[in-house]
UniProtKB/TrEMBL annotation:
Family: Belongs to the phosphoglycerate mutase family. BPG-dependent PGAM subfamily.
Protein name in the entry: 2,3-bisphosphoglycerate-dependent phosphoglycerate mutase
Site location (Transition state stabilizer): H158
Gene name, Swiss-Prot/TrEMBL: gpmA
SMART domains (UniProt xref): PGAM (SM00855)
Length: 206
């Protein structure tokens, strides 16, 4: 039995547009972000995908992206689980700051380390490793069982929570995963084997 796991990073948010560290702050989607979410739903609907359950974070931009996708597949009332375990990485003292201003304050190299290292958190915030520490058990206990039963599961979340999840799914190292770029509103469709390994992966870009 093969289950399907679809991962989608939320559409562009207002703070993505303004080049701000967003983290656990809760801005909405831009018009482009709404269009990206609807386009993601259209791509999945065109594949004939129907979901059995959906998971998203406690943040509005991911929840709205999830809803637009479900509306596009004709499943606007599907059971959707919202949990902060899927939230974006908490950037701590960087939350709400312009990325250029942060570089001016702490230095380009230090900000790059905070953004792209695997296990060095910004002041008061989380590293990608810390983010994984909440994503991985939630996936194992709450999401993976649905996929292993052969169900089709939608996860609409954030760049770093999805990086952590992809790291576990594909066996990617901490050094490699920080270089993985996830486009906003781009669905990634995994087929999983009964032993939880990846049978196939398709990125629905363009």
């Amino acid at each position: 039995m093969t289950g399907t796991l679809v991962l989608v990073r939320h559409g562009q948010s207002e703070w993505n547009l303004k080049n701000l560290f967003t983290g656990w702050r809760d801005p909405g989607l831009t018009e482009r972000g709404v269009a990206e979410a609807k386009a993601a739903g259209a791509k999945l609907a065109a594949r004939g995908l129907k979901f059995d359950i959906a998971f998203t974070s406690a943040l509005t931009r991911a929840q709205n992206t999830c809803q637009y996708i479900l509306d596009a597949t004709g499943q606007g009332d599907l059971e959707t689980i919202r949990n902060a375990a899927l939230n974006e990485r908490d950037y701590g003292d960087l939350n709400g700051l312009n990325k250029d201003d942060a570089r001016a304050k702490w230095g380009k190299e230090q900000v790059h380390i905070w953004r792209r290292s695997y296990d060095t958190p910004p002041p008061g915030g989380e590293s990608l490793k810390d983010t994984g520490a909440r994503v991985w058990p939630y996936y194992m206990h709450d999401m993976q069982p649905h996929v292993l039963r052969g169900e089709t599961v939608l996860v609409a979340a954030h760049g770093n929570s999805l990086r952590a999840l992809i790291m576990a799914l594909e066996g990617i190292s901490g050094e490699e995963i920080v270089n993985l770029e996830l486009g906003t509103g781009v669905p990634i469709v995994y087929k999983l084997n009964a032993d939880s390994t990846v049978a196939s992966k398709e990125v629905l870009a363009g």
